[in-house]
Amino acid sequence: MPRRVDHEERRRAIAEALWRIACARGLDGASLRDVAAEAGISLGQLQHYFSSKDEMLVFALKYLGGLAEERIRARLLGLNGPPSPRDVLRETVMEMLPLDDASRTGNLVQIAYFVRALHDERLRGHAKEGIPALRAFFADQVRTGIERGEVDASRDADAEAMLLIALTDGLTTHLLLEACDQDETKSLLDGHLDRLFTP
């Protein structure tokens, strides 16, 4: 009796093949056929799950995002006691930075997607939709810090959230280019959070 195919598992395997290609050589020259070969399946099998590279890329990014959220939850659960707003921000940004293989892969796939989205209106919509949610999440942590007396009440939570996103993006670029190392990156992040969480 033939083994039943787990369709969600197959979609994840295709996404992982796409990640490997994105990390090795980017996505511009990669075709659906290339991804199918990397995943060890036929082109027809791949097209059963994804009709286009863009559809496959959107799924891969959402899958990556879900894995990152799981790792952030694990980081926070590993802390001693309930996490403070500063802890939540630090552990979230630490997971977003390319400090290990998993987060580096995620960043390389996002960069490949970003490059495509610059020239494609539909993809740009997908690329932008996560930013307001991340900014709102960061801003909520800053507001909680203000309420707890850990952040100066004169701080603009929304502006601070966007500055933290911009800092994370900048540090990501410098890490990927090896223009700064992990110790310096962590020190810069902690310094920024120390200045923010000073009432």
From TrEMBL:
The lineage of its organism: Bacteria, Bacillati, Actinomycetota, Actinomycetes, Kitasatosporales. This is TetR family transcriptional regulator C-terminal domain-containing protein. The keyword DNA-binding applies. The keyword Transcription applies. Residues 31-50 bind DNA. Keywords: DNA-binding, Repressor, Transcription, Transcription regulation. InterPro entries: BetI_C, Homeodomain-like_sf, HTH-type_TetR-like_transc_reg, HTH_TetR, Tet_transcr_reg_TetR-rel_C_sf. It comes from Streptomyces roseoverticillatus. Residues 8-68 form the HTH tetR-type domain.
